[in-house]
Amino acid sequence: MTPLIPILFLGALILVFSGRLLVQWSRKNRTQSVTIEDYSSARAALDSVSVETMAIKRIFATDDMGFISRTGTPEVRRIFLKERKTLALQWLRKTQKQVAQLMDLHLKLASYTHEPNPGFELRLTVNYMFFIFASNVLLIFLWLQGPFKAVSTVGYTLRVAEYFCSVFSLRLEKINPVKLDPVRVTRMV
Amino acid sequence: MGTKLIWSSAIALEAIVLCRGVKAALLRNYPFFYAYVGCVFLVDLLRFSCYEFAPNFNQAFYWHTELVTIVMSYAIVFEIFRRSLRLNPAVARFAQTLLFVVLVLTGTYVAIDLLHGGFTSLPRATAELGRDLRYVEGALLLVMLWLFGRYRISFGRNLLGLTIGYSLLVGLDVINLAFLFLPGNELSIGLRKLRPITYLITLIMWCASLWSSRPDPVPPEESAIERDYDLLEAKTRTALAHISVRVASTLRP
Fold first, then answer.
1. How far from chain centre, in Å, is Cα B205?
2. Cα–Cα dist A160/A130, whole Å
3. What's the burial of A30, exposed, middle or buried (CB within 10 Å: 0-12/13-18/19+)?
4. Interface touch A188/B215, C-beta < 8 Å
5. Is B251 found in the same domain as B152?
6. H or E stretch including B243?
């Protein structure tokens, strides 16, 4: 029975993926392909992630916590911790969402480029999976421990987010915008 | 009676698919697919004749022709690959590399498996080779389906029907063949009966989706987009100005 499992898995996956293809097709009739607007908003999103990264490091800075601990009352410390925690969680969720959107756009835009690199694509996939895992772990960690005890994981998440930004930035530079859809209409011949 | 009914229905549906292919001028767009359907149609007619007039020869004839049809079905894999990625050169090259790796890996595994198994009889060896070729085909198809989903490849109705129908056939066939070669498994008997019905469903799907020629999604014409290029430039300038302000405010002590 054991050698049967990978084969059954293969058959089942074919059926699942073909179902997904059907769902994707039915959704495509409602949603549109990549447009020039998507392209320009992706560029803006990339730039904003890069800029915000500098400011975000401040949320997790232990200097602020040290200052509050020295000068503030326990109530002020509690409010400060609560605010920073909320801010950190919001930032992380936003980063997750932005990276997911950029990844989605990157995959859609892949067909507009003429420089395929299978090794790069595989590396990117693995990195993206690690990012999802690490950022979710960080999310739980932030929730349980607060923002100041997750500094190393935050550092990793920021590095990976920056890596994705540089990757997507390179991808966008390779895009020929002339080949994108000008308007939000699915074109057929 | 039931077997004959399914059999004759399949032959009739294959004939309809071929006729519609000619009438809707789809033969030119999907030559490999119609070559496969034509081949299966001929094989089914021969099998039917063999079943009626030379039943003793039927089993050996079945497995030999099954091998031919499985080899021919690789034409559909090629057709799906050719048609779906023709407008996506980057993904096509990535897919080519990935498919080659999968082909070499599964082909090596199958060859080793065949050599280790030994040849008990010709029909058995033929059947095992057919099964292993189907496994390789399944692996190739799986990689393609994954790529289509990952890169959001656009499909026209014709190609979608062809791909979904074929995936259903191969997916269930792979599961069925796995059980079929497992000795003493009761489930395989039930699944064997299900196989012709799956094929009928696939043929019905092909009939419906390839009844008439439907347009494939295409990238927009370049001249139409050039008009909006100035707009993009203006938007980028605005975004840059916005970012400059934010950078300045972030760096301010």
1. 13
2. 9
3. exposed
4. yes
5. no
6. helix B222-251
Residue A160 · residue A134 · CB < 8 Å: yes
Mean pLDDT, range B213-232, rounded to an integer? 58
Domain identity same for B134 and B238: no
Q: A35 vs chain B: nearest CA distance in angstroms?
A: 10
Q: Are residues B75 and B185 in the same domain?
A: yes
Does pTM surpass 0.90?
A: no
Which chain B residues are Cβ-neighbours of A111 within 8 angstroms? Answer: 87-91, 151, 153
pLDDT in tens, B16-25: 999 998 888 8
Q: Which two tokens stand for residue A17?
A: 């993926």
DSSP class of B5: H
Mutation site for A-interface testing, chosen from B77, B110, B152, B153 by largest number of A Cβ within 10 Å:
B152
Provide the domain limits for residue B252: 223-253
| pLDDT for B207 | 92
B239 and B211 share one domain: no
Query: Which tokens in the block code for residue B69?
Result: 């049809």
Residue B18 main-chain phi, psi, to 5 deg: -65, -45
The reply to whether B25 and B143 lie within a common domain is: yes
Tokens encoding B126: 């033929």
A contacts of B93 (beta carbons < 8 Å): 116, 118
Angle, vertex CA B123, rays to CA B55 and CA B174, nearest 5:
100
Query: Could B225 and A178 be called an inter-chain contact, meaning their C-beta atoms sit closer than 8 Å?
Result: yes
How many structural domains comprise chain B? 2
CA B101 to CA B98: how far, in whole Å?
Answer: 5
Do B188 and B248 share a structural domain? no
The reply to whether A47 touches chain B by the CB within 8 Å rule is yes
**Shared-domain flag, residues B234 and B246:** yes
Give the pLDDT confidence of A47-99 residue by residue, as tens digits.
Answer: 666 666 666 767 777 777 778 777 778 888 888 888 888 888 887 888 788 77
